Amino acid sequence: MKKKTLIILIGLLLIAGAGRALLKAPAVQDMALERGTAAIAKRGAVPLPESESLRVYVCGSASPLGMGQAQACIAVITPEHFYLIDSGAGSTDNINRLGLPTERLQGLLLTHFHSDHIAEIYEVNLGSWVRGRPQPLTIYGPRGVDEVTNGVNASYRQDRIYRTGHHGEDLLPPALGVLQHKTIAPGVIFEDGDLKITAYVAEHPPIHPAVGYRFDYRGRSVVISGDSNVTGETLKIVDGADLLLHDALSLPIVSALSKALAAANQSRQSRIVADVMDYHASAESLIELGEKSNVDMVAFYHLVPVPPNPLLKNVFLRGAPDNFLLTEDLMWFELPIDSDDIVVNAP
Q1: What pTM does this model have?
Q2: CA-based torsion, 200, 201, 203, 206: positive or negative
Q3: What b/e readout covers 53-71, taking b as 16+ CB neighbours within 10 angstroms?
Q4: Label partner for 36 (CA 20 to 30 A): which of 186, 205, 231, 346?
C-alpha cells in the first residue's frame, strides 16, 4: 500500500513538473493568452440586463474604519437614468466589476465632502469619459461643491491633456473630460420623466451642510443617507419609502475598540475612534427609526466599522428585526414596478 501511494505521489509530481514546463512554452502561453483575452472581451461586451425595475447597487459599503471593502458609493439605475451617490476609495473598481453602464452616467450626487465620499470623483469621470459618455459629467452637492469640483478639474488638468493628446479628440473630446457642478438645496432637485430626486438635510456635525437623497420612480423609492445621525428629517424623508440605505455605527464594537486602543497605549487612535460615535447613526437609533416609520427594508452601509466575521456581524445587527441587513460590496437590490417586492442579490 505504501509503495502504491509512493508511485502515485511521484506520478503527480512528474505531471506537475511537466505542467510548469508547458507554461514556459511560448506556444502554450500564446494559446492561453488568446483564450483568456477573448473571454475578458466577451464578458465586457455583455450589457447590463434590461429591466423595468428601480435598481440600487452597493459600489462601496465601508467607512474608513474597515478593510477589504470600498468606501461609500451607491448607484441608482432605471431604464432611463443612472446616478451615483458619493465616490469613495475603491468604488470605481466595483462599478466596473458590476458592469454598470457608465457611458450613460448622468450625474454624481455628493452628500458631503469628507475624503471617503469624494476620493474617486476623477476616476468616475475618467472611466465614463473613456466609455463614451456624450455630455460632461455634472457633480451635484451642497454648498462647497463648486470648490471641490474646480479642485478636481485643476488637479487632473494635465491628465486630461495627456489622454486627449494620446488618443485623439475624436475618441476623447476635451470638453467631455471637464467636470461641471451644480449646487443643490434641500427639496426636489431633479425631475426627469418618472424619476424624482429629493435632497434632505443630514446631521453630521461639524460638517454643514450635509445632505441625503431620496429617489422616487414609478411608485418605488429608495433613500440614501450619506453620513448622518437619525433626526426628524430622516423620519420625514423615509415616509412611505421601500428601501433605506443608511450610514450605521455599532456602538458596542466601536466602544470596545476605543477602550482596547487606550489600554494598549494608542491614545490618539482611541480618541479618533471615540470621536466618530457622535456623528454617525447607531444601529440602535436605526432600529428605533424602523419602529417609528413605515419603511419596508433598512440596509446598513458605510459600516462603522466593517465587521470582519460572523460574530461581529451579529453584534452589529443585535436587536434588529428581519427586514434589516448589512450591505457588502457588489450587493444589489431590485425593486420591480407594480410590486412591493424588494429582491436582494448577494455578491
Answers
A1: 0.92
A2: positive
A3: bbbbbbbbbbbbbbeebbb
A4: 346
Which of 215, 238, 246, 223 minimizes the C-alpha distance to 77? 215
Quick check: 37 and 305 in contact, CB under 8 A?
A: no
pLDDT of residue 1 exceeding 70, the answer is: no
Closest CA to 59 of 43, 44, 70: 70
H or E segment to which residue 273 belongs: helix 267-275
Residues in Cβ contact with 42 at an 8 Å cutoff, skipping those fewer than 6 apart = none
Residue 246 pairs in a beta bridge with: 300
Q: Which residue has the cell 418618472?
A: 194
Query: What average pLDDT score do residues 82-101 get?
Result: 97
Q: Which three cell numbers stand for residue 10?
A: 511521484
Give the homologous superfamily in CATH for domain 51-345: Ribonuclease Z/Hydroxyacylglutathione hydrolase-like (3.60.15.10)
- pLDDT averaged over every residue in the chain: 93
Helix (H, G, I), strand (E, B) or coil at 305: coil
Cis ω on the peptide bond leading into residue 209 (within 30° of 0)? yes
Q: What is the mean pLDDT of residues 67-91?
A: 97
Distance of alpha carbon 185 from alpha carbon 200, whole angstroms: 8
The closest alpha carbon to 279, from 112, 143, 146, belongs to 112
CB 298 within 8 A of CB 246: yes
Mean pLDDT of 11-25: 65
Residue 7 predicted with pLDDT over 70? no
Inform me whether the pLDDT recorded for 75 exceeds 90: yes
Q: Domain spans of the chain?
A: 2-41, 51-345
Strand-strand pairing, 324-326 and 297-304: parallel
